[in-house]
Hints:
Layout: H1 4-14, H2 28-31, E1 47-49, E2 71-84, E3 91-97, E4 105-109, E5 113-120, E6 131-132, E7 151-158, E8 163-168, H3 175-181, E9 185-191, E10 208-217, H4 237-245, E11 251-254, E12 267-270, E13 274-281, E14 288-290, E15 295-299, E16 309-312, E17 321-328, E18 333-339, H5 342-347, E19 351-357
Parallel strand pairs: 1-2, 2-5, 4-9, 10-13, 12-19
Antiparallel strand pairs: 2-3, 5-7, 6-8, 8-9, 10-11, 13-17, 14-18, 15-16, 15-17, 18-19
Amino acid sequence: MITRRTALMGVALSAVAPIASGITVASADSESMTPIGEKVDLSKVARKKVKLVPPPFVHVHDQVAKDPPSIVEFELLIVEKEHEIDDEGTMLQGMTFDGSIPGPLMVVHEGDYVELTLINPPENQMQHNIDFHAATGGLGGGALTLVNPGEKTVLRFKADRPGTFVYHCAPGGPMIPWHVVSGMSGAIMVLPREGLKDDKGQPVSYDKVFYIGENDFYIPRDANGNFKRFEDVGSSYGETLEVMNGLIPTHVVFNGKAGALTGDNALTANVGDRVLIVHSQANRDTRPHLIGGHGDLVWETGKFNNPPQRDNETWFIRGGSAGAALYTFRQPGVYAYVNHNLIEAVNLGATAHFVVEGDWNNDLMAQVVAPSPYGEDVSAIYKSKKALP
């Protein structure tokens, strides 16, 4: 008998048809599970309901825990929708958590319980789930959260490792990379209960926190070389897969769109502000760099049990992870924050701007001589076509 659930799963997996023969496609049923174990009585644990906010901003939270561990309730609505990824009108048939790329940053403290309600509305076409790299067991929650359109589920896990971690959709087989590069990733930050500490074990805090999610997109082109637009997410799969398998992205962007964090949407700070930057990349390696600034303290792997590195010029975020960097701005101006593969930063879109207000410090940097004509005759150097000695 074909049930509604079976039919919906067929829709979700029908897009797999273009895969070459010989590749085994993992179905959602093969990855789902019913956990069997002793029930845990959490009836006396306090609950906190948190409303998430779109990146680059982060919901209100305490840096140092004020209360005993609690159950922190979040809700994510899965939204399949078209998403503009550059100023030329290039459209991605996106799959998102809460309608944003990346999904929102969640913040809890070590020892808290994360209780997530994951909703897959009936308007969607695809089956989805969520894999928390911060969680232990059941494919990071992916095996317990598989939902078809029109379903919801609730997952609880204990946040027992402090740090920054990726979460992403992982519904099985070739659906996994497709969903991730279609926008379905985000991050969670698990703060130590006593707050962050520097490399010497001394407490540190931040005045502002911004979340930057980096994405690589793979948009097919038509016969004339123009980016294609598809009617819905399902119809985009086959041609997108071909581009994906070439491993060369057409766009590499911060927060879902080239220029999403520049101009009127630039990140703002003042001289003296200590700014924590959480940076995630669910699929590819990246190398953040703040032009004109540094990483005063950098948790390159994002794990707060490890001492941070100091004074980094560029740091490395492994694909499938999130890192954190703390910097105190010391000069005013516009700072470009880039993926320091400069081809990806300049040509493909992975650039953000920090606009910093305050007083200039000539001791840190000064223009000693303004640009002016150079009067010496050095033309003889250029008369030979041979390489200079």
